[in-house]
Amino acid sequence: MPHRVVVLALDGLLPFELGIPQRIFGRPVSREPDGPRELLYDVVTCSVRPPGPVRTDADFAVVVRHGPEALATADTVVVPASYELGPVFEEGRLTEELAAALALVRPGTRMVSICTGSYVLAAAGYLDGRPATTHWSSADHFQRLFPRVRVDPDVLFIDDGDVLTSAGVAAGIDLCLHLVRRDHGAAVANDIARRTVVPPHRDGGQAQFIHRPVPEPQFTTTTAARAWALARLERPILLRDMAEREAMSVRTFTRRFREETGISPGQWLTQQRVERARHLLESSDLSVDRVARDAGFGTATSLRQHFQAALGVAPTAYRRTFRASADTAR
After folding, report:
1. Which of 24, 91, 123, 161 is the most exposed place for a label (fewest CB within 10 A)?
2. pLDDT class of 247 with cuts at 50, 70, 90
């Protein structure tokens, strides 16, 4: 049976964020190029009340077809942001109907929040003693309200195993793609990202808030340099080579690159090479030495160091775990 994702729609919800789980999890995908498409997730939306309308922060409501009993069927629960959390936001406590609804969630269910949906998870006790994030503008208030939570205001999302939290809006897309990648591998997540026309991977530790996120209109961008680098990841790539592709000095290129991506060129290259290595480990029987060369790390030792730092697991263990998960799914 597909993994069931239940999205909890609360009054005052943000329609964009409510739609993220359906868009990422709710479409058929192929595990292999040109292979048959299948639904890997079953996505339903529920309210804390019987089926009916739920207010949004826009000039329309949404009609939800499931009541809180759907939470008892969930493998993963997603709580998007809401602007009408009342005592949850003001006092850090659940309302009676919200507490009754969350009491239906089975032990071991994966809990996920998007943006200030983290307030609900914190008020319910899911985040006590654990790392978590929320929208950067609410981070200080969140920490004061929930002192037992280890708040990190500077990241896009945090994966703490069975509890995951994300920053605002687009970071919810990053987190949902991360879950697909964790459940089914990089190839499936990349396919969904391409169809959604979003970047296939933004590392969870990437900064939420970039002070100059949009370059001035008269400036050129670093897009061509990034495309050039992606086409030759297996070869040595120097910072000055990337800068020359855009006819910039190294200093100007580095500053522009960070403005556009939020990270340095070196960090970006490492991320892309780790993603290439993940794909090769999942989709081929190449040796670790060959994967290291084809991903641009040069040696197996370098690959292991960067892979362990990024994912917390060795390449061979990642391949073994992913293959076992894929075989079980099949």
Report:
1. 161
2. very high
CA distance 318 to 330: 18
C-alpha distance from residue 158 to each of 40, 47, 111, 118 (Å): 23, 25, 12, 11
Q: What is the pTM of this model?
A: 0.74
Q: Does residue 266 register a pLDDT over 80?
A: yes
Which one is catalytic: 74, 115, 280, 292? 115
Task: Quote the tokens at residue 85.
Answer: 């959390």
Q: Token digits for 117?
A: 């949906």
The answer to whether 265 touches 242, Cβ cutoff 8 Å, is yes
Encoded tokens for 25: 């999890």
| pLDDT > 50? residue 124 | yes
pLDDT (average), residues 130-157 = 94
Question: Is 46 among the catalytic positions?
Answer: no
Residue 308 corresponds to which tokens in the numbers above? Answer: 């362990």
CA distance 49 to 47: 5
Cα distance between residue 222 and residue 253, in whole Å: 7
Average pLDDT, the chain: 89
> Cα torsion for 112, 68, 3, 194, to the nearest 10°?
-60
Let me know if 275 is exposed, middle or buried by CB neighbors in 10 A (0-12, 13-18, 19+). buried
**Burial class (CB within 10 angstroms; exposed 0-12, middle 13-18, buried 19+) of 236:** exposed
User: Distance between CA atoms of 133 and 154, rounded to whole angstroms?
Assistant: 8
Can you give the pLDDT at residue 305? 94
Structure tokens at 129: 């003693």
Q: What is the DSSP string of 247-306?
A: T--HHHHHHHHHHHHSS-HHHHHHHHHHHHHHHHHHH----HHHHHHHHT--SHHHHHHH
Torsion of CA 71, 76, 80, 86, to 10 degrees: 40
291-329 pLDDT per residue, tens: 999 999 999 999 999 998 888 888 998 888 776 655 554
Inter-axis angle of helices 315-329 and 265-283, nearest 10? 50
